[in-house]
Write a structure and sequence with these properties.
With 363 residues, this protein is of the alpha/beta class. It is built from 14 helices and 9 strands. It has an 8-stranded parallel β-barrel, surrounded by 8 helices. α3 crosses α5, α7 runs parallel beside α9 and α10 crosses α12. The longest helix is centred in the C-terminal third of the chain and has 19 residues. It is globular.
């Protein structure tokens, strides 16, 4: 197993700060523009000293362009120098474990020591799309067994009586390196378990793996899940004591009102999704002028309260308040707005307010 290395914060930041990205393509933004913006955002995060840049996996969502984290990560390997790159996450029930092992073995061979493999058990989409992805053959109940198979492929340690032992192995991977006479050359990416409830928290604790909680989706569950993870954690070859990332939705702007408008537009999309409509992020103007029913207004307000928003300093104040409660080892932010420009500006303002360096690549 790849031993987990605890990162140090950059600049005057109190702890490591990372980014989760959806490659947001709001109303009027093309997929090409969204992906170009994500590449530029990864470069910005690399330059400013953010610790990780993770790509989420979502399907059948018009405003989210990250349907294939591995493909976008392959591009980002060549666009960045220091920052860790990873999935936040790969939704394992959507894929055969061998496919995930090969994709991330390839990434780990392209950028040794810089790749993270975050794994989730949700579909990252609606039930109909999940069925199309899986053809009905895999369910969330199969997740623990799938995870064990993935680990066996990544580390070439199937039991001696397993049908895959010595017959099937992932490439790039440890078996290839061994047979080519360079046995120590392959380093498997560390696995993170992701969750928004206590299910993956329990599994991460049992395995002794790091755990990332999606507070941007389920902040009401974060304290219970982290308590379960920490109380039940078993030291492993990977990790000697618990390590937690907590992710939060944010939007910072030079003007507090602009931050609120950008956040409201994203929350409008979440309201649509909650009412079984297509996930589309409208322009802030269209969201503001929309005539909400009482139910719609209740839903959008509920989602909007989850986002930390305001000036850079105000966002950090809210982030610090959460940190006092969750005591995470690392924080991760997901910038939630309509335009790439607003997302980039939010990233810069938060970096400044959090104490990240201006340019770590100039050293």
């Amino acid at each position: 197993m790849t031993k987990f290395i605890r990162p140090a914060p950059q600049g005057t930041a109190p702890l490591p700060l990372s980014i989760l990205d959806f490659a947001m393509a709001g109303e009027g933004v093309t997929a090409q523009e969204a992906l170009t913006a994500s590449i530029e955002l990864a470069r910005l995060a690399d330059r400013r000293g953010y610790n990780r840049y993770w790509i989420a996996e979502h399907h059948s969502m018009p405003s989210v362009t990250t349907s294939s984290p591995a493909m976008l990560l392959a591009r980002l390997v060549g666009e960045t120098s220091n920052i860790r790159l990873g999935s936040g996450g790969m939704m394992l029930p959507n894929f055969p474990p061998l496919v995930v092992a090969e994709q991330f073995g390839l990434l780990a061979s392209m950028a040794p020591g810089r790749i993270d493999l975050g794994i989730g058990r949700a579909p990252g989409t609606d039930g109909h799309t999940a069925s199309a992805l899986r053809r009905g053959q895999i369910s969330a109940e199969d997740y623990p067994a799938q995870l064990m198979e993935l680990l066996a492929f990544l580390h070439d340690d199937f039991p001696s009586d397993h049908p895959y032992k010595d017959n099937i192995y992932s490439v790039p991977g440890p078996k290839q390196a061994q047979e080519n006479g360079v046995a120590d050359s392959f380093i498997a990416p560390p696995i993170w378990l992701l969750g928004s409830s206590d299910f993956s928290a329990r599994l991460a604790a049992e395995l002794g793996f790091p755990f990332a909680f999606a507070a941007h989706l389920a902040d009401q569950n974060v304290m219970v899940a982290l308590d379960v993870y920490r109380r039940h954690f078993k030291p492993s070859k990977v990790l000697d004591k618990p390590y937690v990332i907590s992710s939060f939705g944010v939007m910072a702007a030079d003007d507090e009102q602009e931050a609120k408008q950008q956040s409201w537009a994203y929350s409008h999309a979440m309201m649509r999704m909650s009412t079984r409509r297509s996930f589309v992020v409208p322009t802030p103007e269209n969201a503001e002028n929309y005539q909400y029913s009482a139910t719609e207004h209740e839903l959008i307000t509920m989602w909007d309260t989850k986002t930390l928003k305001g000036t850079g300093e105000q966002v950090i104040e809210q982030l610090n308040a959460w940190q006092q409660r969750v005591e995470a080892d690392e924080l991760m932010i997901l910038n939630l707005g309509h335009t790439p420009q607003a997302i980039h500006r939010s990233t810069e303002l938060i970096a400044d307010a959090f104490g990240l360096p201006k340019n770590v690549l100039s050293k």
